[in-house]
Amino acid sequence: MGKDFSELILELHKKQLTIILALDRHKNMFLSEIRKLIRSNYDYTTSYLNDLKRRGLVEEYRIGRYRIYRITSKGEMFANAVKKIFGIMG
Predict the structure, then answer these.
(1) How many CA atoms lie within 13 A of 74 on its CB side?
(2) I want to staple 33 with a disulfide (CB 3.0 to 4.6 A). Which of 22, 29, 49, 62 is the partner?
(3) Can you spell out the DSSP letters for 11-60?
(4) Per-residue pLDDT tens for 33-49?
């Protein structure tokens, strides 16, 4: 797991952890699906996602006007560390 992930868990907002775990499960999600999942408005959701992108945990791609997010390999390792720490079955 490493010190980096332990510190990162403390830095992230609870909703960002929810996003990471959902993307780990589903692999790809539309922005609108993520907004509904975390029950947040567009501005907060994109702010959370931009921070996760900056940290290299998720990436964004577009199909037409749709924004789709997927977890990166670093994000998958982080999600596994979160599940291990919190005892979440994957």
Answers:
(1) 12
(2) 29
(3) HS-HHHHHHHHHHHHHSEEEHHHHHHHHT--HHHHHHHHHHHHHTTSEEE
(4) 999 999 999 999 999 99
Task: Please give the distance of CA 53 from its chain centroid, rounded to a whole number.
Answer: 9
- Cβ contacts of 70 within 8 Å, gap of 6 or more: 23, 27, 28, 29, 58, 59, 61
Put simply, whether the predicted model's pTM sits higher than 0.70 gets the answer yes
SS3 call for 87: coil
Domain covering 2-86 in this structure, CATH number: 1.10.10.10
pLDDT of 4 strictly over 90? no
Angle at 67 (CA atoms; ends 74, 28), nearest 5 degrees? 45
